Amino acid sequence: xxxxxxxxxxxxxxxxxxxxxxxxxxxxxxxxxxxxxxxxxxxxxxxxxxxxxxxxxxxxxxxxxxxxxxxxxxxxxxxxxxxxxxxxxxxxxxxxxxxxxxxxxxxxxxxxxxxxxxxxxxxxxxxxxxxxxxxxxxxxxxxxxxxxxxxxxxxxxxxxxxxxxxxxxxxxxxxxxxxxxxxxxxxxxxxxxxxxxxxxxxxxxxxxxxxxxxxxxxxxxxxxxxxxxxxxxxxxxxxxxxxxxxxxxxxxxxxxxxxxxxxxxxxxxxxxxxxxxxxxxxxxxxxxxxxxxxxxxxxxxxxxxxxxxxxxxxxxxxxxxxxxxxxxxxxxxxxxxxxxxxxxxxxxxxxxxxxxxxxxxxxxxxxxxxxxxxxxxxxxxxxxxxxxxxxxxxxxxxxxxxxxxxxxxxxxxxxxxxx
Length: 419
Known about the structure:
There is one protein chain. By secondary structure, this protein is mainly alpha-helical. 82% of the residues lie in helices and 0% in strands. Helix 5 packs antiparallel against helix 6. The model is unreliable at 212-220 (pLDDT under 50).
């Protein structure tokens, strides 16, 4: 693999790092901000919700109308500028409205300038080892958690949460600006071919297309769904429900520090638990890819969802910090499912014929879940004064997630048999 391909991988990882810095970095601000301002946990959780909801609205508009005109590099630079401005607003926030406004400013370009650009970059540059590269890039989200949770809590203790937001904004902008500097939009821009594509393979494809213009070079199974068929099928909506539920409960990651402090851990200990868990999350994304290759995405999702439920059951059963740390590591093995497994499962269950169009809609289920999850879990904590209710609710939603996915897979198998 030449240096250019490695450069693209690094660019993609830096951009994906930008996804995790705002979302995962917020976890360190729950306690200091709520204690200093008097906001409830559920009120402050809405900051993360506004980040996600703004992205749900903005991503289709940015990717359709702006990104094609200005290109990947300028989109990432624009995201870095807006992100820095948003964090500046957060650092000066005195009211809930100011915090929500800062989140909206960050969210306008957050997903478009990070995840969308990164995935597009990898798709443009890699044919061979495409899955491996995507796994490495996705693992950068977990790396952001390790970095922010190791640095930000101590920084906040020493300098205050206001400067903590400035630090987070600086980290975000640097990641995006460096990624933008390194990226090259297409191999053709520098006279290269995508990794795994050769001149001979291009010639073979051209010859096949010439010999039979009615034949699609990539043969798809007759059972693959079209975009229109997917929207008419209950399988699509059952998958969406499953994705929403898992993403909602995955927002518990943001509340792990305060959850551990309610059980007797110090702020620094709680931050270190999240930092160690983040390292596990990084490795787990690669493990998910390997498991999907070996077992299939469907079986792999069953396994990781069951592991996730087990972690919450342990949280509910004990107050022992040592055992809870072990449960947090188990939790971390599966919390990356929305980032890695959802698209693999969609590919396997609905097929690849019109995957891009289908995934473009279905992927918003996770964003919706992330937007709803923070305030929902925060509400149950505020209402009860304990995380016990939150844990039970999380288990309930994960059971719904598993049941919905099982129903989707079962129904899809029946549809295929009828076809």
